């Protein structure tokens, strides 16, 4: 090892140590990846009264909404594993969804008009998610009622699991499923988030 | 355990790859070489073996794209020199002086300097990329850095500006 191997003393330290701004190159990469069909998953976050939400979409539609308590990095790692590691921070791809969420939290929108990719739910859980969309804004339904709607009246616990593992909370309204005894029940985003959403919708 | 999101790769290695591209192809073509590198990497990423050395993999792609850029440039009429937009210089002059010095190095020395000193690849990896053995890579790196240092020494710069 000679002194010349020491990067500290190499001639680049002064010039190429300068800050690198990749924002323009990142935009170009996103555009070229989209053109070539390589943008498998894109994501962004939105700030909401229930904390910061992570939004992720595939070419089919919105695939994941995640609360901060779920750990956004963990959620992204899972998406890379289960869907595709070709996962990049979005440019404008998710602006429309983010706008609808803003409207929802400002009480100017009561339903979401976005394409959904429900590939992260399967079988009975998927059936439950499809029926959750029938519970109207401002309303609630009991776990037992949802089980009946889904065609398996005795699968009350499985409805609870389907809600707890809902990949698209807020947009697919599992927060409208409450306990028959009047309690609001558990929620993937935490009990406070559930209460916030139900109050926002005027359901409690 | 699968691969990390590609976003993490861009975040972690993007600046390094840009410096490598800059050193091999110069300020004018560096952005194009970077863009082609990351687009090709994104395309191949799902097939990359999970235990791969991502850094060495990226530098290999960057080298191929940089060489493509240099070949394409030699077929084009000489472009007008423009300032790099992506790397923000503390002093613009220092950046241009450095590229001016780098372009005078033999290509093997210039590439060795880029892959070892900028990308941080060990000489064994550099030798694998450029051919030859680690000892000759080490020599090329040392010679390249020594030439750069003498070209960029304040006295040499005064000499050249006269």
From TrEMBL, chain A:
Species this protein is from: Frankia torreyi
Domain Methylated-DNA-[protein]-cysteine S-methyltransferase DNA binding: 124-203
UniProt key word Transmembrane: no
UniProt record similarity statement: Belongs to the MGMT family.
GO molecular function, one term: methylated-DNA-[protein]-cysteine S-methyltransferase activity
Every Methylguanine DNA methyltransferase ribonuclease-like domain range: 41-118
Protein name, UniProt field: methylated-DNA--[protein]-cysteine S-methyltransferase
EC class of the enzyme, as a word: transferase
NCBIfam families linked: ogt (TIGR00589)
GO annotation, biological process: DNA repair; methylation
InterPro entries, per database record: MethylDNA_cys_MeTrfase_AS, MethylDNA_cys_MeTrfase_DNA-bd, MethylDNA_cys_MeTrfase_DNAb, MethylG_MeTrfase_N, MGMT_N_sf, WH-like_DNA-bd_sf
The keyword DNA damage is assigned to this record: yes
TrEMBL record, chain B:
Pfam families found in the cross-reference section: Sigma70_r2 (PF04542), Sigma70_r4_2 (PF08281)
Domain RNA polymerase sigma-70 region: 10-76
Residue ranges of domain RNA polymerase sigma factor 70 region 4 type in the record: 97-139
GO molecular-function term, one example from the UniProt record: sigma factor activity
GO biological process: DNA-templated transcription initiation
Record PANTHER family: RNA POLYMERASE ECF-TYPE SIGMA FACTO, RNA POLYMERASE SIGMA FACTOR HI_1459-RELATED
Family: Belongs to the sigma-70 factor family. ECF subfamily.
Protein name: RNA polymerase sigma factor, sigma-70 family
